[in-house]
Design brief:
By secondary structure, the protein is mainly α. The chain has a single domain, classed as Up-down Bundle (Amino acid/polyamine transporter I). The chain has helices spanning 6-9, 18-21, 26-37, 45-76, 93-100, 104-144, 154-169, 179-205, 224-242, 248-252, 261-291, 309-345, 358-377, 381-409, 416-447, and strands at residues 80-81, 88-89. α4 crosses α9 and α6 (104-144) runs antiparallel to α12 (309-345). The longest helix is centred in the first third of the chain and has 41 residues, at 104-144. The chain is globular and about 65 Å long. The two termini are 25 Å apart. One of its GO terms (molecular function) is symporter activity.
């Protein structure tokens, strides 16, 4: 789950005693990070590997892991201002940016965070509805045969998911329910482990497609333009699978000290990134070896696997349950920001009336309605993940940590380290730009043939 750890991580001061609030260790932080990182993005890695091939695919995974580890270390050092053990705490990512950079950086950081949260709501809606439809398709293929037309209209499932979220959205403080992170972790590991197991079984029994050192072949699988676009889109999918910097400061704020929080956080980041990278290698490489260049965009809903149908069904049920809660967890900070701003500006409008908060009822319902509508208009799994990954990767994982570290250490302009950090940021910006452009192109291409409420997949 991209944000499973937020259930407890997003607790801030809220009147809780320091000793009660900060009891986290390297292991709890590691659990939060792994829960936040391993999620629906893992389902696209076989497809991404098919675009990149046996050389660039694993190298890309390792490079993104190394960059994420390094920049998250820089970000962890910015938890406190001044002395790393006793300096003023920054409770959120935005507060850290405000403390070190200020000005337009704060607005840009908030914009990136909330756009990512909004976009993730769309991504979760699409992924959950595709998985719900896949359950019916799986049963259809099992009982009627693999050649049967078992296509489904995903719009119906998207609307159903939206109705469920309208109901759950009215529960205040839902994101603070401690059991949500536990359920998210169990569901995430369950469907990811099933995907790995099924891919391994298929590889052993006989691969269904050809693999190459360079991925999809120009003139055989795709044309030259498609190869370029899909390669960049694959980079966005990989970036989405690694992005968790958006909640790193909040995770760090749960850690006890001594030792200093940044030391514990660096240890947790090393353990969690190593674990997730190993898991991603298994998912991506085994999925590619099982399906070759024809690897589906979503390994559990693209129907490379038909049997055992009940196991495929179980994996997709796990995805749906995971994302029902995940939607709430990830959108709660956005709800809190809007409702907090309204309470400050118009306290009468945002107040409860007869036990009912009319503003919350209307605003959250409208929010879910807009997300549901956009998901119906753009139900394209890989393209949406590519867009989300590119939005989150450069600004939140690279740009702000680099800029804050430079300001914190007062690195001289054009010094060797300053130039190296700025070069890293610029290269990552180009990757983000290419991935975002390719993903948008993928959405536009898909929209040419997609008709809302009518097209079946």
């Amino acid at each position: 789950m991209r944000s499973g750890g937020l259930a407890e991580v997003k607790r801030r001061s809220g009147g809780l005693a320091e000793a009660e609030r900060r009891t986290g260790t390297v292991w709890t932080a590691t659990a939060h990070i792994i829960t936040a990182v391993i999620g629906s993005g893992v389902l696209s890695l076989a497809w991404a590997m098919a675009q990149l091939g046996w050389v660039a695919g694993p190298v890309t995974l390792l490079l993104f892991a190394a960059i994420t580890y390094y920049t998250c270390g820089l970000l962890a050092d910015c938890y406190r201002v001044g002395d790393p053990a006793t300096g003023k705490r920054n409770y959120t990512y935005t507060e850290a940016v405000k403390s070190y950079l200020g000005g337009w950086h704060v607005w840009f950081c908030g914009f990136c965070q909330y756009v990512n949260m909004f976009g993730t709501g769309i991504g979760y809606t699409i992924t959950a509805s595709i998985s719900a439809a896949a359950i019916n398709k799986s049963n259809c293929f099992h009982w009627r045969g693999h050649d049967t037309d078992c296509s489904q209209n995903t719009s119906t499932y998207i609307i159903g998911f939206g109705v469920v979220q309208v109901i759950f959205c009215q529960l205040p403080n839902f994101h603070k329910l401690w059991w949500l992170s536990i359920i998210a972790a169990v569901m995430s590991f369950s469907y990811a482990a099933i995907a790995v197991g099924l891919s391994l079984a298929q590889t052993i029994s006989g691969p269904l497609g050809k693999t190459t050192m360079t991925g999809t072949q120009v003139g055989v699988d795709v044309d030259a333009a498609q190869k370029i676009w899909m390669t960049f889109q694959a980079l966005g999918n990989v970036a989405f699978a690694y992005s968790y910097a958006i909640i790193l400061i909040e995770i760090q704020d749960t850690l006890r000290s001594p030792p200093a929080e940044h030391i514990t956080m660096r240890q947790a980041t090393m353990v969690s990134i190593s674990t997730t990278t190993g898991f991603y290698m298994l998912c991506g490489c085994l999925g590619y070896s099982a399906f070759g260049s024809g690897a589906p965009g979503n390994i559990l809903t693209g129907f490379g696997f038909y049997e055992p149908y009940w196991l495929v069904d179980l994996a997709n049920v796990c995805i749906v349950v995971h994302l029902v809660g995940g939607f709430q967890v990830f959108c709660q900070p956005l709800f809190a920001a809007v409702e907090g701003g309204m309470a400050r500006r118009c306290p009468g409008l945002a107040a409860d009336r007869g036990g009912v908060n009319v503003f919350r009822l209307v605003w959250r319902t409208a929010f879910v309605a807009v997300i549901t509508l956009l998901a119906i208009l753009m139900p394209f799994f890989n393209s949406i993940l590519g867009i989300l990954g590119s939005i989150a990767f450069w600004p939140l994982t690279v740009f702000f940590p680099v800029e804050m570290y430079i300001r914190q250490r007062q690195l001289p302009r054009f010094s060797t380290k300053w130039a190296a950090l700025q070069s890293l940021s610029f290269v990552c910006f180009l990757v983000t730009l290419a991935a975002c452009a390719a993903s948008v192109q993928g959405v536009l291409d898909s929209l040419k043939t997609y008709v809302p409420f009518k097209t079946r997949t």
